[in-house]
Design goal:
single chain; alpha+beta; four-stranded antiparallel sheet; about 40% helix
Length: about 110
Amino acid sequence: MAPEALSHKEIEDALAELPGWSAPGDRIERTYTFEGHLAAAAMVGQIARVQDALGHHADLTLSYNKLKVSVNTHSVGHKVTELDLELAHRIEQIATEHGVGGTKGG
């Protein structure tokens, strides 16, 4: 079954379970802060493995010690779907396992 765009309320309700994530426009996003560049780059690799397993990919922006994750579903007109929320939850699991801090939004 093809993914369907979520309503603004559905997104906001789901984000209550994803602290640090926000929904600017038609996407959900979060910025993580690391001890240094290698830790941030390592997180990119871990996220890439999860994305390939799910067949769903976020936009990742890596700077020295920050990683911005931004995601929506292209096949439904760049809207937020359950696929995006599933990926966000998986990314949060990785971050939690590695004790990564974060800042809300971008």
